[in-house]
Amino acid sequence: MQEIIIDLVNVSKNYNGTEALNNINLYIRKNEFVTLLGPSGCGKTTTLRIIGGFEKPSSGEVYFNGVKINDLPPYKRKVNTVFQKYALFPHLSVFENIAFGLKIKKMDKKIIDKKVREVLAMVNLAGYEKRKIDSLSGGQQQRIAIARALVNEPEVLLLDEPLGALDLKLRQEMQFELKNMQQRLGITFVYVTHDQEEALSMSDTIVVMKDGRIQQIGTPIDIYNEPKNAFVADFIGESNIINGTMVQDYLVNFAGLDFECVDSGFGQNEPVDVVIRPEDIQVVSEAESPLRGEVKTVTFKGVHYEMIVQSNGIHWKIHSTGMEPAGTRVGLKIVPDAIHVMRRVTAK
Amino acid sequence: MKRFLARGYAALIYLFLYAPILILIVFSFNASKSRGNWAGFTLNWYLELFQDRQIMKALYYTMVIAVLSAIIATVIGTAAAIGIHNMKRLKKTIVMNLTYIPVVNPDIVTGLSLMLLFIFTNLQLGFVSLLLAHITFNIPYVILSVLPKLKQLDKNLYEAALDLGATPLYAYRKVILPEIMPGIVTGLLLAFTLSVDDFVVSFFTTGSGVSTLSIIVYSMARRGINPKINALSSLLFLTVLILLVIVNFRSGENKNKE
Amino acid sequence: MRRNWLSYPYLFWVLLFILLPLLLVLYYSITSITGEGIRFTLEHFQRFMEPIYLRVLFRSVKLAFISTVLCLLLGYPMAMILAGKNFKKKNVMVFLFVVPMWMNFLLRTYAWMTLLEKNGLINTFLARLGLSPLNILYTEKAVVLGMVYNFLPFMVLPIYSVLSKIDKSLIEAAEDLGANGITVFRKVIFPLSLPGVASGITMVFMPAVTTFVISRLLGGGQFTLIGNLIEQQFLVAGDWNFGSAISMVMMAVILLSIGIMSRYERENEGGGLW
Fold first, then answer.
1. Which site among B163, B170, B173 would you substitute to test the A interface, given the most A Cβ atoms closer than 10 Å to its Cβ?
2. Domains in chain B, please, with CATH?
3. How confident is the model over B52-58, as a mean pLDDT?
């Protein structure tokens, strides 16, 4: 287990009375790829900027390798940032942009030259040294921004939604490259995004945030399979969220029926949220399941069909490679493993 | 038909604008003082113009004041624009409204209020008072030229520089200033031109024999027509034309860069 | 970015060279020096209320108003023409329009002196045609002419600027919905151009109402507008109190007209005017 490199303790941030962050407690280990994930306004960028030194916490402490750095300005931190809109200096060439940080450190000219060429090769843009920034495409500017940050060999790289402006294909390629880079270089990456697929595919650890609070921290698999509350379940992947009642351990009641499940530890007859993924519901004949309904719509989505089945007043969303045409009466089969029971969160 | 009307109308307006100036220029070469008759081509008036001590002195003062006031106004104004850009909204609105005062105020009020100030503080009217007055009405125009450039600036550029290890001073020197330089240069040129062109404010705030070109022209014109003024007009017109072509050429270049 | 101190030199300058002088004008307008010392009084303002001076104010506003209207009538079509042209020529045409603006306005006014005087070019020309000479110089007509000549570009350029920014698709949408040329102008173009018109009116009316050069050169020594009156009081009569009072009245007129106009003008970038 690697040591902790960044530690946020009880960090809160207020802007003119609005609370952007509320009691954030989070630690990041060396060489980890951590993603801060959440909708707009959840505080993920604010958290990143506090780590980078562009904002100061209203309360709480920020530790870097055990040292408190609350008052340390950005230019003294061993951290570098890749900004959302790249923030490349328009009046400087590609070379000068990348060399910017090295020049400040007063490195030898020959060493700077070597390092810049190396990092350009690493992002597959060798030969672009003399180019002007405005002559580059979005994807190229993206990679120059990454190169400019990495050439300074930071201990931590902060990335603020760096792939947002790229088209889908390019974004997927860059996701792969970034993950690769992180593993090869052994740098800690702190990544901010609102795209849950991106988070799931790249991260070692995901921190789900909402309204300035951390909702859940875990590996991609944990978060996907064991969401802690309805928000996380709804934000990550698609889900059906239904009101239910916990009859007793391993038995939950919803849609007017009792179902076996694998969760325990709730009070008797406690109202709960039941979360079931669309791909976990099987469409069977009416006779095979007590849960029955009528197929309302069928949409072809390429990878799968999405069917909406109305049953006992609930609209179930189902993903399946096969389909039944609209109007068919079907049965819905749900195995105990597929049912996730969670505490009802009053403020959704 | 519409296009013909439009062209004709535009031509008339341009004629209206340029005819007086062109006539002035033409008659600056007229051998006779008369404004109605052409008596032959001569460069005499130009010669007399350059030999006129008073006019040359005024030219000297006009240029010195313009250059000095433009430079000083640009330094103060650029610093002010950067400061204003970083202000919170309330303070920014107040300061901007203050900035608009000399722009909106008629020159005559600016001129005489400054005159009152100088007399009140026992500063003798002369070169210094004239310079201070020119700086005063120039600064707002510098601010109004630089501020939009600051607004256009990507907010992250400054932070990116800090992130890469630059101190705030280094970041301003190497990143911010180069980016807003077009605005600064525009402000400088604007200030220079306004200073050369000014009459009313100079009229009230100068003394001790320090005169600008505009003031000389005014006193000459009040006494009646004088072909030396025609000669002066031609030269000034040429200068303005060249300056404007240069400025236009520069801003055309900038547009290509963006 | 705690760089606020950068603006302190400027703020100090504003305080000293803009606010303080204006306060001095205010001070002189409401005080009077008597044997016993300084006394607060409104007598200077009362003096301004005398018919002879009110007539001057009225004349200034009247002439400025006429000039502004003329500039608007002449300038709006010009702005439309400029805004309608296609790209390459447009830059040159706008440039040509701007050049006279930068020419020293004293010289431009002087140019009209030569044209309008008794033995000037226009009269010589008319004499050749056998027509009687016009006596325009040193009359109100000459002053209005001078004002329109000097300030026409200030009316055209703001209107042109707004017109050229009108989204072409708005006009196309109107035509698509059945509007002909005149209706498109009345219902779409003109209303959208109002902020530019308001700017233009402000930029013409203000200097027109406060000028003293144009009235002196083209109107002659006996011609008095409010600008001349102020100049006289300060530099000839030495009556700073009265002069300041007149200045305060003039500033009030200016602020009033800006206030009226700013209701039509949209906020420019760079901070407010109010």
1. B163
2. 49-224 (1.10.3720.10)
3. 87
User: Per the CB < 8 Å rule, is B200 touching C213?
Assistant: yes
DSSP string, B17-51: HHHHHHHHHHHTTBSSS-SS----B--HHHHHHHH
Q: Mark yes or no for CB contact A87/B166 under 8 Å.
A: no
- Measured CA to CA, the distance from residue B211 to residue B204 in angstroms comes to 11
- Pair of tokens at residue B197: 């062109």
Across A72-81, A208-217, B40-49, C144-153, least confident range: B40-49
pLDDT greater than 60 at residue A86: yes
Q: Is 50 exceeded by the pLDDT of residue C23? A: yes
* Contact status, residue C97 vs residue C89, Cβ threshold 8 Å: no
Which residues of B fall within a CB distance of 8 Å from C137?
none
Res C173: pLDDT: 85
- The reply to whether residue B165 touches residue A84, judged by beta carbons under 8 angstroms, is no
Residue C241 near residue C230, CB atoms below 8 Å: no
Strand-pair category, A340-343 with A213-218: unpaired
- Paired tokens of A83: 């900004």
Mean pLDDT of chain A: 90
Q: Is residue A205 within 8 Å of residue A32, measured between CB atoms?
A: yes
Residues on chain B touching A83 (C-beta within 8 angstroms):
156, 159-160
3-state secondary structure of A93: strand
Question: What secondary structure letter does DSSP report for A7?
Answer: E
Provide the H-helix boundaries in chain A. 44-52, 94-104, 109-122, 138-150, 168-185, 196-202, 220-225, 230-235
What are the φ/ψ torsions at residue C7 (nearest 5 degrees)? -90, -5
Whether pLDDT at B247 is above 80 = no
Q: Are the Cβ atoms of B83 and C104 closer than 8 angstroms?
A: no
Give the model confidence (pLDDT) of A98-144 as tens digits. 999 999 999 999 999 999 999 999 888 999 999 999 899 988 999 99
Predicted interface score ipTM higher than 0.95: no
Which of C2, C3, C5, C7 would best serve as a mutation to test chain B binding (most B beta carbons within 10 A)?
A: C7
The A-side interface with B (CB below 8 A) comprises 52-54, 73-75, 79-81, 83-85, 87-91, 100-101, 104-105, 134, 148-149, 152
C35 burial level (CB within 10 Å; 0-12, 13-18, 19+): exposed
Mean pLDDT over residues C166-172, rounded?
A: 83
Determine the residue among C110, C112, C232 to mutate to test chain B binding: the one whose Cβ has the most chain B Cβ atoms within 10 Å: C110
Q: Do B159 and A87 touch (CB under 8 A)?
A: yes
The residues of chain A that CATH labels 3.40.50.300 are: 4-230
- Least Cα distance to A213 among A6, A25, A14 occurs for A25
Q: C227: which chain B residues are within 8 Å (Cβ-Cβ)? A: 106, 108
Cβ separation of A54 and B159 shorter than 8 Å? yes
Annotated domain spans of chain C: 47-262
In the predicted structure, residue B159 carries a pLDDT above the cut 50? yes
CATH number assigned to the domain covering A238-343: 2.40.50.140
Nearest Cα neighbor of A89 from B186, C3, B184, B163 is B163
pLDDT for position A61 = 94
Which pLDDT value is given to residue A100? 93
Q: Which of C67, C76, C69, C65 is nearest to C156 (CA)?
A: C76
A4-230, which class in CATH?
A: alpha beta
Distance CA A140, CA C235 (A): 68
Residues of C in Cβ contact (< 8 Å) with B9: 77-78, 81
Q: What is the DSSP string of A216-265?
A: EEE-HHHHHHS-SSHHHHHHSS--EEEEEEEEETTEEEETTEEEE-S---
Q: CB A101 to CB B165 under 8 A?
A: yes
What superfamily in CATH does domain C47-262 come from? MetI-like (1.10.3720.10)
Contact B164 A75 (CB under 8 A): yes
